[in-house]
UniProtKB/TrEMBL annotation:
GO cellular component: ATP-binding cassette (ABC) transporter complex
UniProt GO BP: cobalt ion transport
Alphabetical keyword list: ATP-binding, Cell membrane, Membrane, Nucleotide-binding, Translocase, Transport
Native source species: Streptomyces haneummycinicus
Upper taxonomic lineage: Bacteria, Bacillati, Actinomycetota, Actinomycetes, Kitasatosporales
Protein name, as recorded: ABC transporter ATP-binding protein
Length: 177
């Protein structure tokens, strides 16, 4: 990757990051405006931007919220809007920081179903989480970051490593405790 305008634009269209708190990411007056921000800044045609916004809102099951002011959304709706903004960029890699934090069980399941759909469509989803049970249930591979370093491998094997999970600075939570 080149560190110039063209190189950075290519990176932004390849990798998207959604931070843990959607309030740190949302800034536009309405859901549709927020989701359209990235594609508009790529210089895409209005037709292409509208199509990407519609597809992203549908993928996150928030099409009905397109004209709603972002400050009137529930926490779960704000999370889904932030993810829709990233999805509208059509990244190959979507990085999510604690995407289920603050969501009720139904909201978590709906979000995971959405992420399954994105994965099925070819998007690589990287999720940072302290929830071992969630990672075990959902992830194919896991990376544990501990005070002794990074440890990677298939999720089932990595998340069974109590020597890495307990008392080593992992900060993970789960039923294994």
């Amino acid at each position: 990757m080149r560190y110039d305008r063209k190189g950075l634009t290519a990176l932004r269209t390849t990798v998207q990051l959604v931070v843990q708190d959607p309030d740190d990411q949302l800034f536009a007056a309405s859901v549709g405006q927020d989701v359209s921000f990235g594609p508009l800044n790529l210089g895409l045609s209005d037709t292409e931007v509208r199509a990407r916004v519609a597809q992203s809102l549908a993928a996150l099951d928030i099409s009905a919220l397109a004209d709603r002011p972002t400050h009137l959304l529930s926490y779960g709706q704000r999370k889904r809007t932030a993810i829709a903004g990233a999805v509208a960029m059509r990244p190959r890699v979507l990085i999510l920081d604690e995407p289920t934090a603050g969501l009720d069980p139904d909201g978590q399941e709906r979000l995971l179903a959405t992420l399954d759909g994105l994965r099925a469509d070819g998007t690589t989803v990287v999720m940072a989480t302290h929830d071992v049970d969630l990672a075990l249930r959902w992830a194919d591979d896991a990376a544990l970051l501990t005070t002794t370093g990074a440890h990677t491998g298939p999720a089932a094997g990595m998340l069974a490593r109590t020597d890495l999970l307990a008392g080593r600075g992992c900060g993970c939570r789960g039923a294994w405790r």
